[in-house]
């Protein structure tokens, strides 16, 4: 009787431990899978937003260096938005599709090798297919993010007719957005927040300053 009770107690102790280990293992696998699966479009989105913000703002600042007309500035920014979004989408699609071709070719070689060795795992093959990069998803995320970033300087300048005030508002709005995008990129990439934000901010300032200065120089020289 005593031995039977001891055996039951041991069984009650072992089963929850195994369940807990299995649950912990499944949670870790799920977290790793989710992070790796979303890394492609998150990277494209963050880069696209920064590019849209900096390139469109730089174009508008460059034109604003020689043309004070608000219509010219807005049209330049809008043209930069459309051209940049299309360029980012096409570039991202081609890049990710090339990566997809490489990974699919590698999967085929691995499958042939496993077939030769008499090995095969259907579940593993399905997981590998799910983890493959998606060119359309990356292209759409890049184009959308670029457009969102480009809208910041466009909206900031749309309702201000005073030239100097307009430039100041654009610089202020872009600086704030650069800090936000830098912080977001650091959070997604698990990088130092302050360092990443300052790096993105300074990079945006340098791009706008160079574009403004060179355009001003060329415009004043009469070329």
Topology at a glance:
Elements: H1 2-64, H2 70-116, H3 122-130, H4 135-157, H5 163-189, H6 193-220
Helix pairs in contact: 1-2, 1-4, 1-5, 1-6, 2-4, 4-5, 5-6
Characterization of this structure:
This protein has 223 residues and is an all-alpha fold. It has one domain. It is 88% helix and 0% strand. Helix 1 (2-64) runs antiparallel to helix 5 and helix 1 packs parallel to helix 6. Mean pLDDT is 77; it is low at 1-17 and 24-37.
Summarize the structure.
The chain has helices at 2-64, 70-116, 122-130, 135-157, 163-189, 193-220.
Helix content: over 70%
First CA to last CA: what distance? 104 Å
Q: Count the E strands.
A: 0
Determine the strand fraction and express it as a percent band.
under 5%
Mean pLDDT: 77
Q: Give the low-pLDDT segments.
A: 1-17, 24-37
Total helical segments: 6
- What overall geometry do the principal axes of the alpha carbons give? elongated
Largest sheet: none
Number of domains: 1
CA gyration radius, whole angstroms: 27 Å
- N-to-C order of helices and strands: HHHHHH
Label the structural class: mainly alpha
